[in-house]
Each structure stands twice: as C-alpha cells, then as structure tokens.
Please model this.
Amino acid sequence: MRCSNDNFKKIRNVFFIILGSTILSFGTYNFNYQNDVTEGGVLGLILFMKNIFNISPSITNIVIDLALFLLGAKFFGKTFLFKCILSTVVFSVTYGIWESIGFLVPSFANNMFLASIFSGLFVGIGVGFVVIAGGACGGDDVIAILGSKFTKFEIKDIYLLTDGIVLFLSLVYLSINQVFYSLLAVTISGNIIGLMNKRGMN
Model:
C-alpha cells in the first residue's frame, strides 16, 4: 500500500511539474514578453537578456539555472535536481513552441494593469505547481526555497527581494511605469507561490 502511494505521489509530482512549467512558459511569452512586463529573479534576468541581447529564453534558461540547480541538489538531493531539470526542459521546449506559433492572446499593451495581473497569475500558478511538487522552475526558486529553509523569512519575502534587484536592472530597457506594473506582477506571483507552497505542505 505504501509503495502504491509513493508511486502515485511520484506520478503526481511529474504531472505537476510538466503542467506548471507549461503554464509558466505560456504566461512568460504571451503576457510578460508581449507586453514588456518583466519578472524578477532569474526569470526576469532571462527576459532582460532577451530584450537587451535578443538571446532566446529557451537557451538562457538552461545556462543560468543549471548552476543554481546544482547548488540546490547539494541540500535536497538528486531527486530535486531531476525535478529541476525536468522543469527547465519542459519550459524551454514549450517556450520554443509558443515562439514558433506566435502570440495566442491579444496584446494588453494599452492596459498594463490587466497585463500585470495575468502575468502574475500565470507565473504564480505555474511556479507554484512545480514548487509543491518538490522542484524549482528557476534559480531564484532555489534561492527562495533555500532561504526559507535556513532563515526566518518566508518564500514570498525572498522572492520580493530578488525580484526587486532584477527590476532595478530592468530600468535599462523599461520605463519607471513599466517597472511599477512589473512589480505588481511579481507581488501577485510571489504571494500565489507562497500560498500554494503552504497548502502543498499541509
């Protein structure tokens, strides 16, 4: 019976990682990139590289995250590393698919408030599924998970700190107005991830 439950949990976790990474890539391409709503942490850094150097997130996502995933594996083991790699591969593959298809939702460039809300929802839910499955979508997720484990801060607090740093850098290609809406998006996503993580632990 225990073996059956363990197998079910493993299958559920793989499903959550695939689902969450696909939701994340869809939201990142259709809401963040299309409307110039950036994210914080590594995801924001990936979008920064896309806008400044035109390097596809399907490439930078793997390069930047791998080092931090290896760091996380030192604390959480090989299973954690496998989940992170699976999330990264699914994100990269599905993001490449969205790029080849083109935008599937209309632009919200004239309504940045809505663009920020949708961005925060998709990123928050996507990352949330991966986190409750015991993995991480990006290096900033590893930082947030490790930070919440070894400090008194919650995951959402560490997300806001790393997001704030990257959003400051994003002023190079975004206006203050755009950064404001991006901050709204990361606040929404950070709180959703924190809520999903708490529920997943119960």
Q: What stands out?
A: Residues 75 and 146 are 8 Å apart (CA to CA).
